Amino acid sequence: MKSYFLTIVMIVLGVLCHAQEYDVKGTKVNVQSYSFENLDGENYFKLDNVNGDIELEGWDRPEVQVQYNQFIYADSDANLEEARNVIGVVCKSSGNKIFCYVNAPDINYNEDECAYIRTDLGSTYGQYSYEHDFKVMVPKNTNIVVRNISGNIKNVQNIKANIVKVKNVSGGLKMEDIQGTKVLASTVSGNLHLHEISSETLEAYSTSGNIILDGVSGIIRSNTISGNIVIKYTENPNGYSDIQTKSGNIDMSFEDPIQGLVGYHIEMTGRFFNDTDLEVSPDVGIQNYSSCGDKKSDYKNKKLEGKRQSSNEFILQTSTGNIYLRYL
């Protein structure tokens, strides 16, 4: 709850900062390299950004390279110069961890909680604003934790690690070519596009946006309030999966055959189209059943359940949309 409150505070702060027009602009480009003590260990790179875009890519070199472009917008040359002296990026290396965050007088970064805390804004509030665009290269076996408040996470790619967590608040998020034990991607306001993700567990969440999972494998938990969820499996899931949207369609494409997914629980108020070999009997609590051709079934406004005891169960729920199951 505390981190959620801090996030909302920063959203409001960002909106207020950009409500004013600024005439003076200053830019700065910085590139720094860092190294882990043990390349073969369980290493972590963490990045917390306030406002701007992020790109992160894995490479075969042993060091971490952090490049950022800093943009400061002020209402006078004097305020621009003041802002340049107090705004920047801090990167620290400690053992198996390298972490970077934005430093500014109107926010304080708590390293223990990994969260921004709004401070006394002082006399400079409203006289300047700032953005940071990051481009980061890391050894591809590095565990990743990336968080942004306002801006797009343009791409996180070519990572092979145990943990990959990427979170945004206001903006889109894209990830591709990821192999991990646990992969998490979330944004409050924006679309998620994940391509070629291989993991034991994949979590993808958005409050207001579409979720596209293209070429994925593993157990999936995905939820959006307002948006569609599209999933294309490269390997059918072998465990409990939960896919939910309040206002949107669920469209899932599987490898043929689908017999391993013998347990299911489906809820919707729209229509259900099944073009797979999944056995959905109209005799099990189903109404308004009608055939739509070979292997195609159409159900409406009902719950479908089958063999709930299965460890390979998946749950699909949508309040106002349709559900589509098909083969690639």
Give the % helix: under 10%
In total, the number of strands is: 22
- Fraction of residues in β-strands: over 45%
End-to-end CA span: 41 Å
Itemize the secondary structure elements and their pairings.
Blueprint: H1 2-17, E1 24-34, E2 44-48, E3 54-59, E4 64-74, H2 77-86, E5 88-94, E6 97-103, E7 107-110, E8 115-118, E9 128-139, E10 143-147, E11 153-170, E12 173-189, E13 192-208, E14 211-226, E15 229-235, E16 241-247, E17 250-254, E18 264-274, E19 290-291, E20 297-306, E21 314-318, E22 323-327
Parallel strand pairs: 2-6, 2-10, 3-9, 3-11, 10-11, 11-12, 12-13, 13-14, 14-15, 14-16, 15-17, 16-21, 17-22, 18-21, 18-22
Antiparallel strand pairs: 1-4, 4-9, 5-6, 7-8, 18-20, 19-20
Describe the structure.
There is one protein chain. The chain has helices at 2-17, 77-86, and strands spanning 24-34, 44-48, 54-59, 64-74, 88-94, 97-103, 107-110, 115-118, 128-139, 143-147, 153-170, 173-189, 192-208, 211-226, 229-235, 241-247, 250-254, 264-274, 290-291, 297-306, 314-318, 323-327. The chain has 328 residues and is mostly beta strands. It has two domains: 1-146, no CATH class; 191-328, no CATH class. The strands form two sheets. It has a seven-stranded parallel β-barrel with strand order 14-15-17-22-18-21-16. Strands 7-8 form a two-stranded antiparallel ribbon. The protein is globular and about 70 Å long. Mean pLDDT is 82; it is low at 1-20 and 282-297.
Keywords:
328 residues, disordered N terminus, seven-stranded parallel barrel, 2 domains, two-stranded antiparallel sheet, 8% helix, mainly beta
